[in-house]
Each structure stands twice: as structure tokens, then as C-alpha cells.
Predict the 3D structure of the following.
Amino acid sequence: MNIIYNKEEKTLENGITALAIAKEFNVPLKEVLVAQINEKIIDLSRSVNEDGEIKFFTFKDKEGKKVFWHSSAHVLAIAVKRLHPESILGIGPAIDEGFYYDIYNLKIGDNDLQDIEKEIQNIIKEDIPFKREDISKEEANILLKDNKFKLEIIKDVNEKMSVYRNGEFYDLCRGPHVPSTRYVGHVKLLKVSGAYWKGDSKREVMTRIYGISFPSKKELEDYLMVLEERKNHDHKKIGKELELFEFSEFSPGSAFFTTKGAVIYNELIKFAKDLDKKYEYSEIITPLIAKAELWKISGHFEKYKENMFKVTPFESEEEYALKPMNCPFSAILFKSKTRSYRELPMRLSDYGFLHRYELEGTLDGLFRTRLMEQNDSHVYVMEDQIESEMMRMFDIMDDTYNPFDLKPIIKLATRPEKRIGDEELWDKAEKILKETLDKRGYNYEIKEGDGAFYGPKIDIYALDFSGKPEDAYAVSTIQLDFNLAVRFDAKYIGSDNKEHFPIVIHRSIMGSIGRFMGIILENSKGDLPFWISPVQVRVLTITEKNAKYAENVIKKLKENGIRVDSELDSGTLEYKIRKGQLEKIPYIIIIGSKEEEKNTISVRNRKGKTDYNIDLDEFISERLEDIKQRRKYEEK
Amino acid sequence: MNIIYNKEEKTLENGITALAIAKEFNVPLKEVLVAQINEKIIDLSRSVNEDGEIKFFTFKDKEGKKVFWHSSAHVLAIAVKRLHPESILGIGPAIDEGFYYDIYNLKIGDNDLQDIEKEIQNIIKEDIPFKREDISKEEANILLKDNKFKLEIIKDVNEKMSVYRNGEFYDLCRGPHVPSTRYVGHVKLLKVSGAYWKGDSKREVMTRIYGISFPSKKELEDYLMVLEERKNHDHKKIGKELELFEFSEFSPGSAFFTTKGAVIYNELIKFAKDLDKKYEYSEIITPLIAKAELWKISGHFEKYKENMFKVTPFESEEEYALKPMNCPFSAILFKSKTRSYRELPMRLSDYGFLHRYELEGTLDGLFRTRLMEQNDSHVYVMEDQIESEMMRMFDIMDDTYNPFDLKPIIKLATRPEKRIGDEELWDKAEKILKETLDKRGYNYEIKEGDGAFYGPKIDIYALDFSGKPEDAYAVSTIQLDFNLAVRFDAKYIGSDNKEHFPIVIHRSIMGSIGRFMGIILENSKGDLPFWISPVQVRVLTITEKNAKYAENVIKKLKENGIRVDSELDSGTLEYKIRKGQLEKIPYIIIIGSKEEEKNTISVRNRKGKTDYNIDLDEFISERLEDIKQRRKYEEK
């Protein structure tokens, strides 16, 4: 048979193993975990019987990671069965990061994980090979007769089945796996939780053990450090600690912003609207529900219905849907009167609330929600206005990212196979987008064929605290659309006195406002810039006799529009300072008799540095500059 | 039989007519139209056969008006049948103002109304009596065999039927009516439109003729003048002319605010939020949908379900409803942590979008919608905080009404028959409300028994341009609620270290923001105060050579945050000024060579007065004061 590897072709004996092929091609074997022949991933020990192209994957490849973590799940299962023979295995897949195994009749808690980890270490040391065995459905039923979960799986499978064995251990499994347990390297079990069998709340509750593994101890340790750090950056944790938002079982996926959270949220909206004004966008306000007919015209019912919510009056049969996007509504206003080319570019912002149905299990704090509000705009343009409008959008992006030190990662997605609009238009549009990105000196990645069917788009991500591009947050999107105006028959009269369809540029710079709030909370660990902090200044007194002077300080701060609160009751200063620090309040003003005598204030910043003898007016005018310029929070 | 009239009792012969009874009691008969015996309204010509209390109604009473207009509809029908014998009568009821008759097989337009009016005048002069005749269902079927609409009505009726005759004319009708056609006085037919039989779009299209009538010519003329004036004040007309909002068949009852309309809307929101800040309210932001369970707890499913919209994902069976009110969400945030009495009063504002199902036929521009946003607040208080919070709310009301010259009409609604909460609490609450109203020196009306089941409330109306209290707009509401916290088990820890339920004060000062916008548009005829005008200043040039100077003026206005636009192209000044005036732009700045030479501007205000030689900086600083103080628009 003829095998190609890395553009080199060899004629090899039919039926030799993937491992033997690797040796023939002098592939360095140390890190290789699995092979891939003609798009199918297989164990290194499997025979190859067909012509084709072969690849070998290590842990560095996502295919390799998946196999590595899946094999780790098997090793976990071996350990559990050794320690708890009465337990019954469910399923144990690899996930985005690591793996889990769902096991029945296993009563353990997080404290028991260490014992299991020890056994896993033994199993790794024992270096037990993974052995594949193809079996029939009947054989599978006999082999696994004591495991009702596996029997249930067998019932649903029609293709050929296989079992993987490690010594006395076996598991129903399609594979592939690493050659032996030694390859699994270094494992850390992360937590135990409950999970319904098949995710069905009417079925058995399984014990789910989560784990992570890496080839080297160093990689594992680095990962665990990042994990620890990530916890400290988690916006859900910060949101809870700072009392910014809540979620309720009554409305999964819709945040309740508390009085403090709403301050941040509204400052973001104000920021976005100030930029709209600066860059000459105009706001429109549109309905939240529309009849089915609208979503048929817009194409949402065809492409997006599974993410939408149906709305019907309880006492009538009219059928509506909650809007998942604002676009159709801008088109309705655009065509509400005759438009002239003189009105273009028409920049219509819409801060409408959008509902998108997401499975409950996938909801994630402010990051993945069912309700969101975007700083959304639809810009109606003629072809020759695309470039200048793009430049304007990137200006807004820069202005939006800078105060939060967000570093953009830019991806340009070009024409997909299925598309509308003529080729010439696509050529021009892609050219303009590339030229604009080049002119601005941005680095960007091109995702060929990844554009929307209605036009090319640019997606912008922002790096998280770790600085790894693969962990970056999706933030902004800018999309050209040749289709919207056509669907809604929204035209303008050109300078030629004829009717034309405008091109529409969809644009959301912050993305979801709530999500953006989550991102800045994560990146700042809650140490928000002064201008957006819910409580900007807290006033404390050393003793109660300075209360009156403190009240005057508070009054003056309030008059200047600074968000200030106070704790003037008895209680130790130390405790109050500590409390203010935990609440991430940018400045704590401390008033004692010295301050009162000298008519000054002492100011403690978030890092614990205290400045004495500060003039209140000077402090205020500096803070007003912080607000006016939307300054980053710079520690002194 | 014994009959009481106006607290006087007489023994009268059984079976005498209501008219005869009126004479016995010396009732001045000139204006009397109908009688009422034991809550049943009857013709004056009908016999009375039972003991009871009798009343007599004239056109001044709402019962009298209704009969007057219903009889007018009959007179209209007589006229139409005389002129168009082939036409077939449908139904002809009295409505809130006047009456209509739906008639089939009648092809007429507004131009034909004059002929019908002439015939009506003849019929009135002929003074034909209304004669009632009780008939059986069988008799009715025979009498009306040629009218399929009446036959349909007969089919649905089970009670005894009656026919009213005027000479040769007869109509199936329950009555009652005025004694004769002369009573109908003076009639004006207002318009012709189409209407489906029974409002069903699958049924026949009837010709609907609207009319109004009054006892005297003077009253009719006054009404028609008001009607004409009302048209000029109609916010729907103003909204269309000034391009402020649109409606679409895709979402009935939800306004689309254009870029100009959104400016007004957002200025109102900003105004409301500034007042929230001034009076120390804090905003929360809450979801728009919630599960059925929440609405069961809140009681909305029991009391309000027919006004609500059901929400279900297209691909899941979860059941939600769109919120018609914000209250439950504030309760969820209130109870999201342990609350202390020190946190009360807790003033939570929520500008959430609310959906309320209203029948399509009842929708009315911005006044009656399905989507609205209120400047809504829920204030959680202890009993002894009610008064000071009420005072605060009235301060906000004054601040809100003053810039628009709105004159409040206040109504206090007290305990209804069905209610919760102990009597002592009701006593106290009503006492506090009355005392607060008295302290503020407000005139107010008490609506006994009109409160909500959960507490007493104050409704505030604002006079419209006509100044008639009965035409006043409903605007604000302040409601005490003993029930909300109990339903949601939302408690606070009192100074006694025990748990207590707070009382909640619901408060919306503008009511619906959109509706409030409609009200100020109507009362101002679109001549909005400077600070809230979508375009505040327009700059015009006399010739193009002053364009550069004009650009500098525009730039300076913009830098100062003034909303300015311009028309610098060629086109006559006169035309442009007229256009600006029709657009109700507060100030038009005119730039010519004289202005450029002297480095000044000429300013034309909305009333047509032009001031020359104005210093731009002075103009700007005055306008900034207009904005800062939210000044009414004072003509100079």
C-alpha cells in the first residue's frame, strides 16, 4: 500500500501498524500519542490496510489532547474500580479542558480525591497497555451484563463495537487511546459533583469526577497556577463578592443588576452613547417583539429559530417572537420614508434588549446569557462609503478598548461557499476590509470561508489576563451585509435619480454590555477605573467627634457628582479600611482631628498607600479629570 | 306603590308612567330624557309597577348622554333608510363621545354626509315619537326576516326582545330612548369608515358613520371647535409631522422611535434619572421574562393573566411570561441578602420594559400601547417612613410637572371591600396619605373604596390643553402595598432583632415614558422646551459665501453640546425659515455678510421674532442655562 507522510510517499507492507509506519518515516516517537489515516484517528498499535495520508498527533495538537484526556478518564476509572469495586461506570469523555468520569454507586467527596490520585499514580507507573478488542453486540451484552448504563448504551449503538482493556480492567469504548497508562503523565483530580445520567433529571444521579492531566509535571503545575489565578479573575466570583449582580431560578440566563452593578452597567451605556455622539451615530428605539411574518422576511425563522423565544398573548392566538437581533427594526425605520443618497451614511444605533435561547447547562454568568443588550448599530452606506465607515468603527473600537487596556485580536472572515451577492461586490468588499486593516497597521488573521452568507466580517477578540490568544474573549463584530436591505426592500434614491439598495454594516463594539462588564471585571479583578466604580470614595472618621467635618467633605464630593458613601459609626478604623479595600473602593478618605485642624483630608488608595495633608478641592478636581477623561486607574 | 324621589316618598297609582311620576314630584321636565327605577334605566313613557327609588337623567348625566347618543344613532338610521332604502342596518351604539351606525350595502363617502345631515334635521323637526314594543323571538324573526345581521343578533339573544318604532321606521333595540326625535337636538356627522361585522376580518365590511349630537346648537359648535383644536394637539399627528415615531403592522402597540423621537425619549429618561439621583433613588436592572412560577407567587397569573404575553423557546417547553410590571423583580433583589432596618427606606428604581396585551382596536398612538417603560420605583419602608417618602415623591412630582406646566389633579383611593392587611394598618395608611396631601396643600378628591386590594393609592392626572378635569391625562401613581413583601417572603431584621415585612410603595411619576412624551407633545403642540427639542438650533446662510463663518458657528454650538443642524445649500431663505418653523425648531440662526462682518449672529425664535447683532457666546451661555435648569420655553 502507498502511504504519504508530510508530502513524502512510501510503499509499505499492507497491514503494518501505525507505529511501524511512524518508524518507517523516522517520526520522532517520544511524544506521539495517536495516528490519523485518511481523517480517521486510530491507536498507534492498529494495522493500516489502505492507501492514504498519515498524520501523527502529540499532546500539542488538539486531536492529541483529546485522546490524552480520554485515556486519562480510563485511568481514573481503573483507579476508582480498584478502590471501590462496587461502583458502576457510566461515561468518561474528554472535555474542552481535561476530562470527567460519571460513576454510579460511589459515595465520595472532594476529600477522597487524594486517595484516588495516589492509585492513579500507581497505575501510571505500572505502564499497562491499552488493548483494543472488536466485539459484537451480543458479546458486549454478555461482557457488560452487570452494568445497566453500558447496556443502555449498547442498545442505542448499531455500528460495530469495541472494548479497551488495561490488564484486568475493561471498558466499552470506541477509542482511540494512547499506547499505555505511562503516557498519561501527570494527573490532578479537580472536583466531585453530581450529574444526572444522560442529563435527565428523572434519571439516576451519578458521581462526576473532574480531572486534568499533562505529559509533564511542569505543565500540570503551570496549569494549576493559571486555574487558581483564573478563579481570582472569575467575574462570577467578583460579582458576588462586590454585590454587583444576581441570578435567579425564575429567569435563568438573565442577570439582575443590583444598585452597584447597575452603576457600572449604566456607565458603560453612557460611555458607548458618548462615543455614538462623538462619531455621529444617532439612536433609535424599537420594539422587543414582532410578528412571525417579520422573522420570515428577515430570514431569522429559517436560520435562527432554535435560538428564539415565541411570544403569544395568553388570551389571543397572535404569534410573535422576541427579537434576538435588532437589524430588521432598523430596516423598517429606514424605509418608513423615501431616502436620498444625501442621507447616507445613516448610522442608526439601537440598544434594544435581545433574547437568545441557550441551553441552561451552557449559561455562564454574564458571559453566556439569554438576555443581552448590545451597543449595536446599523450603518446604511453606499459602496464608496464602506472604507471611511470602517475607519470610524475602528476609531470607536480604540476609544472603547483603551480605558480598559484591552488588547485586540483581529480576525477577518471571508466569503463562505454558500453566499449571496455578486462576486465583484465580494471582491471589492474584502479588498476594502483588508486595506482598512492594513492602513490601521493592525495584525490580523484571515479566516478563509468563515464570513456570513450575506457578507464578509471582522471579529475582534480581547486578550484576557493570561495573554493567551486562545483564551481571548469575543468582544466586537463588524459585518458587511448585502442582503438585509434587499430582503426588506429598503432603498434610497441615488444621485442618478434611480433606486438602489444600500449596503448595511452591522456593528457592535462592546458586544453585550453585560458581557463586556464581565470582561473588564475579570481583567481588572474588580479594581475598576475610578470613573466606573460604583462607590468611588468612602469617608471614614477616626473618632465620632470629626463627624461634622466629615459630613462637609461628603457634601462637597456629592455636589461634584462623585459617588461617595461613609462609615461614621464607632468601629475600629482598621476594620473599616480593610472592608473598604475588599469592596475595591478606589479611595478611602480618612478624617481625624489633625485633618480637621488643617482643613485637609488623608487619602488611602486601593493599593494601601496613604497621602496625608491633601487639599479637598485638589483631590476633587483630579477625580473630576479621572471621570472626564475616563482615565485608567493608575496607582501612585 | 311607594316611590321615592330625591329622599321624598309618595304613594302612587300602580302602573303610571315614569313621566307621570316626574310630574307628581314636580321635576322640571324640559331637559329630562329618561328615568331610572331601581337601577334600571327606562323610557319616560314606560309604566312603573313596583316600589322603589326613581331618578331622572338629562344630557348632563352620563346615563342621559348615552341614551341621547343612542337615540341619535336611530335618527341617523332613519335618515339613511329614507335616502338609501336598499341599505341594511347592522348595529348603532352610543360610544364615549357620540355614536355610530354600521350599515351594509351603503356606498357613501364623507362628501355624502351633508345630505344625510339635512335629512336628520327634517326628522328632528318632524318630532316623531320613539315607541317601544315588546316582541317574542318568533315575531322578531318575522319582522326582521330581510336583515341577516339582525337575524344573527336575534339568534344569540335569549331574553325578551323589543323593537323601537319611529313612524314607519323600526329597529330591533333594547332601548331606552328619548321621547321623540326632537330631543336629539343638533347632530353633526363626523366621518365614514369601514368596519368588519362583529370586528371579524372574515365577515362583511360595513359602512360605519360616526356622529355627535348635543341638545343645543351652541354646545355642538363648542364641541366641534374643541374637536378641531384637539386635532391640532393630537400627538399622533404631531409625531408624524415632526417625524418622531412610527408604528408598524409587525408589532402593533410598540412605537418605533426615530432618531429625533429617541432624543426626546432619552431626555425624559435622563430627566427622570437625574431626579432619582437628586432624591436618592438607586437603579436596578432586571430581566424581562420570568417563569410561570414567579407570576403565581406574585398573583399576576390570578389577577392579570389576560393582559400578559406567554413566552416559550421555540425548541423547548419551558414557560415564561413577559413582565407587565417590575414589582416582583425588586422583591427578588431585596431578598437576595439579609436586610437590616438600617437599609430602609430602600428606594429601587427600575426602568424595565413592560409588555401588556391590549386589544388591537384599543391601541392609541403613544397613549395606549403594548410596550412601555416607566420611571418605576419600589420603595421598601417601615411604617413610620411612609410620610417622609410620600413627601419625597410629591417633590419629584412637582419637579417633573413644572418644566412642562402640567397641572395635577389628585385622587386618593381608599380601602376596597376585598382587601388584605389588618384594619389598623389601613387606618394608619389612609390617615398618613390624607395628612401628607393636606400638608402639601393639594386639592384632592377621595375615591372611597377604589384602592387596590393590597393598599390605598393616589392617582395623579394632568390637565390637557382644554383644562377640563374629565379630559385630564392619567400620569402618576403612588400605591402602598402591604402584600408584595409577604408574598415573596422578603423580610428585614428590625431594631428589635426580629424579622418584619417591609411595606412597599410603588411609584411611577411620569407613568409610561412614551405616554408622557405624547402628553407633552399634545400640551405644547410640539413646541417643546429648548432642552428637550431634538434639533435645538438650525443654522441658515443667506448666501453660500458665508458658509465658512456658519461652519464655525456650528462647530462652537456642537462643542457646547447643543443639538444643531444646518441648511447651507442654495435655496431661498424664506423657504428654509418656513421649513424650520414647521419643524418647531426653537431657534434659527441666520448668517449673512452683516453678521460675518460684525462677528455676530441673527436669531429667529419659534414665534417669528428675530434678534439681530447677537453675540454667539452670549447666546450659547443662555441656551446652556435653558438646558441646565430645564427651563420652559419662554417666548421673548
User: Anything to note?
Assistant: The two ends of chain A are 71 Å apart (CA to CA). Chain A has a mean pLDDT of 94.
